[in-house]
Structure of FecR family protein:
Amino acid sequence: MSVDHPRVEPDPEALAEAAEWLMCLSDSEVTPGQQAQWAAWRNSSAERAQAWARAELLMGKLGGLPPALSLSALDRPSDPGRRRAITRLAVLLALGPASWAGWQMYGQGWAADYRSAVGQRRDVMLADGTQLILNTDTAIDVRFDANERFIRLYRGEILVQTAPDIVVPARPLRVGTGEGVMQALGTRFSVRERQGRTYLAVLEGAVRVQPASAGQAQGRVVAAGEQADFDGQGVGPNQALDSAGTLWTQGMLLADNMRLDELLGELARYQRGFIRCDRQSAGLRVSGAFPISDRGRTLGMLQATYGLEVEERMGGYWTLVSAR
């Protein structure tokens, strides 16, 4: 009679070490001494062996370490770009095989025209006078030609303030995601790409939405004071604008009776590593205005207001919030 054992997740510290070794071993000039050190590390504990098994599975699924990451292995060990790449690789390992299929789309952002780092907000002025604000961990391409101005959002979130085209008058401005295209009709609006859906919020003017796999008749205009989300097949109903959705431009996240796990999921966008809560506290309803760039203050507010316990490991890379 077989016994089903509960699935055990690899140790987060071991996953971070496995990511470091993946980067090291991707170097074409790796030495025999480094290979011996890696073998000793892998065999030193069951947790490390399990973490490396997952790393090997990742390599098999992706056909090798993505080039955008392996290039960073040639930098100095203290190079910030290399450290960021290792962190992202560790996150990918921890998410597991179910999330690896999304790497290809995520990786497109490495060569994007404009990017923002995790926790960074970046202002961009385009050649036509359009102003953009990139939220945390965002990647876009900009392609202007004689017929249109096109912004491709690969991941993340942007706030767009259009301007009269000072280069070629009357060129339409469009923003594209994997789910479709939005055409600005003289406007200020935000666009967020999230898990196979695009979220549009219109603050001024109007935006016409055209899903990628739908006919022109299924397109829709979203007016000022409205928001809508869509996938490649269609657009959801227009709803009243939630003005809190753009408070990130002011460095704040507003929670109004939000579940704790949802709040932490939003905060995690602005932090490196993991921040999670236990099952007992996941459904706790939370309200307040939280600074997205001050991790310590936000966690302190949650502790003081809701009596939660915060446990941090690996220098804050792994954070668990739980009920006392």
